[in-house]
Design a protein that fits this description.
The structure holds two protein chains of two kinds.
Chain A (H helix, E strand, L loop, with lengths): L29 H4 L44 E2 L20 E8 L10 H10 L2 E8 L3 H9 L8 E5 L7 H8 L4 H4 L8 H4 L3 H5 L2 E2 L2 E2 L1 E5 L5 E5 L1 H6 L9 H11 L11 H7 L6 E3 L5 E3 L4 H15 L5 H4 L6 H6 L5 E5 L1 H10 L9 E2 L12 E2 L4 E7 L5 H14 L6 H8 L6 E3 L5 E3 L1 H6 L13 E2 L7 H12 L3 E2 L18 H12 L7 H27 L1
Parallel strand pairs in A: 1-17, 2-3, 2-4, 13-18
Antiparallel strand pairs in A: 4-14, 5-6, 7-14, 8-11, 8-12, 9-10, 15-16
Chain B lengths: L4 E2 L22 H30 L14 H4 L6 H8 L1 H20 L2 H12 L3 H12 L6 H12 L4 H8 L14 H26 L3 H9 L4 H26 L6 H11 L1 H4 L2 H11 L3 H28 L6 E2 L2
Antiparallel strand pairs in B: 1-2
Helix pairs in contact in B: 3-15, 5-9, 6-9, 9-11, 11-15, 14-15
The chains are: A alpha/beta, B mainly alpha.
Amino acid sequence: MTPVTHASRTSGQSRRTFLTILGAGALGSAALAGCRTEGGGGGEATSPAGAVTDEVLPAYSALDYVEPDFPSVNGSTAGFASIPAELVQAYDAPPGSGSTFTAMTPLWGAIPPTDGNQYFDAVNAAIGSTVQFQISDGNTYGDKLAAVLASADDVPDWVCIPTWNIPPRFDQAVESLFEDLTPFLAGDAVLDYPHLANIPTDVWKFCVFNGKLKALPFPGEIITDAIFYRDDVFAAEGITELPTNAEELLELCAELTNGQRWAANDLWNTATMIHGVVPKWRIEDDGTLTHRIETEEYRAALEWNAQLFAQGSVHPDAVADNSGDAKARFESGQVLISNDGVGGWHEALARQLGSNPGYSQRPFTPFAADGGTPVLWKGNPANILSFIKATDDKDKVAEMLAVADFLAAPFGTAEYALINYGVEGVHYSTDDDGLPVPTELAATELQPSYIFLADPPVVNTKVQFPGFVEAFCTWMADASAYVQDPAFFGMQITEPNQFGSLSQPIEDLEKDISRGRKPLSDLDAAIETWRSTGGEELRQFYAQILDAQ
Amino acid sequence: MTAPTVLAAPRPVATRSRPSPPEQRKVSLRTRWRRDRSLIIMTVPAVLLLAVFAYVPMAGNIVAWQDYSPYIGILDSPFIAWDNFARVLTSPAFLHAVQNTLVITGFQLVFYFPLPIILALLLNSVLTPAIRTTIQSIVYLPHFFSWVLVVTVFQQMFGGAGLVNQIMTQNGWGSFDLMTNPDTFLVLITSQAVWKDAGWGIIIFLAALATVDPALYEASVVDGASRWRRMWHISLPALRPVVILLLILRLGDALTVGFEQLILQRGAVGAQVSEVIDTFVYYQGVINGDWGFATAAGLMKGVISLLLVLGANKLAHLFGEAGVYQKS
């Protein structure tokens, strides 16, 4: 399936989302801004973050049940066009032993009912344990996490933490709150859990905190975000010329806006994408580090976004920073262009196709602001991690890992089909081609939940949406040509806590400048303040990690 | 007796002169216990509740002197003396938040506080009970809406894509965006507060007015007093103790200007005008994980608020008013 890799990447910005009654946000810059992994215990940080010894990593043992129809290109997501007629039953008996676990997961959409939910009941029966979900709005998930983690008693048995929501002082939290999975999974121990062993080593590297294997991954895609447009509306209005540079996108936005409709949501993330703004740091030729806010690209992106706002192309609710309804505005056609995590694509189809069979959205082919060769920064191997609460009951941990193994069953197994398509006859019916056709109930009940606890390596198997897998995989295969590794790629770096408050003023300023409340020239002063209030020390911190490499 | 007595209900000032306090005599503890026993027993549950939910948690303020991390606990977090307070006082962001808070408080004191009083006086002059209760119900209902709802309603009405703007653009009258204009933010949040809570605020004033003896009005009418005169000489004096009481309480809340309302609209107008002490503490403490720093900021806010209440109360006594409480 297409991992819902930040189905809607919320960024640092959307921590303050406004009116997130019905989830659904997007607009994340953290997407590219990479993992916001502040944390750390005041001052003496643990050994240079990101250093991982091989002993803690699980062995890799590939499992292939089915060959993909759309193979991976340069690491792009592979896809399947059909479901094998015979599914492999990976588990003869449910792996669980009847325990009940609480699990906290994010969701960018309407929270499904937990009582009487046939999807949850069916999966719980199949895994032999009961997972009780506490699902929270993904847009404000970080805020909720910070409060939940601060009170150890309230921490659920299983906690899903998107990397961009990792709270400050996480190096302490991870020690005191969460189970060390190293003894269970390191090396050949993982072979007890064949589906977990099927997850590549690079992904596991991202689950290592303080030198211990602490988390289970939700593997990520190499391209995390895209600029989507409503190709159905474009076609209806005869718009065929798609933008190939920043200027053309501005013109298109101006053209699309009229009194009753606006062109776009807040396109800050788009601005950083087309300008190729680095996620966090750029390593200069002389080996020094330049922070993203110090780069010319960042300044240009801000200037472009401010132009977009100034020309009135942004929906007023987006100007009012209501990112919670961003998806609703896009899907209802109030705006026609919006950036989102790539997983947001199929989630939108799941919500819309039932009531609006003609609904369609497509990502723009990547382009650079100046019309040259675009740069896309490679996404983390895992963007969403799940942690198991520390307990003395090692059998319980083993049971949860067995459940995780079930959840990580790859495409081609009956387990995978159950988790991703639900129950036949309830959540989908099978059409003549053997493809599942979702029912209306699927739109409400079958929401991403189990997949955030553990998931197999990334593939796109959303065959229930006609034409989607092909469109997705072709787009990503093309786009993958532009993917580059950012600095510190694939390293799980926990910043010391003293840097926790550095990003706040910058995020505020991004919004102020974009919305014309402050001039672009204020950026210089903000960068100076950033440098003097800890930015330089942060640079030192990363320089040390760089030297150690 | 030395315990402060809280005046829960306003006293009918206009009807009779204030009774002089009873003579203070030394009474033995034993006698007092026997006399007040049942009253004291009745207060025990409330005192216990207060102790458990208010006073014991206050001990947690100790983290203001620590580099506190909830993950290692109060006992293991290192003490750093007054560092947090020093950082708070030298933090431009905090001082800016204080400034915003004071501006909002001041503005609302002038443009929000008198409104319930005026409304109560107006309502009080409506004689038909049916109309009066209908109006009252309508104006106080918004009090039960959450802030999310209030802000949504405003956004849907006055936002750039709201109803008013749609009608205006359809008729070619141009458009405006009240919701995202930092310059009019003060007016915006005050009107939201008025819409939500002014109706609720009149209840206490109406109660005070209800205690006025109708005979006074009748007598003044006989004496030929106009409507205006009756309000000036009868209604307003009846309200005065309540107004003073609420004013003092408001001063105690001066540094609390509506966390939810502001955090919901922070993105719309920017932190420059919307960051207040409460939101600052939230971001600094919970979001940025600087718990000690945030606690120090919150503690300072608490101390200043306490001083404001005590000062205002003292001032009220100087002017011969009852204030919030007094020693009997």
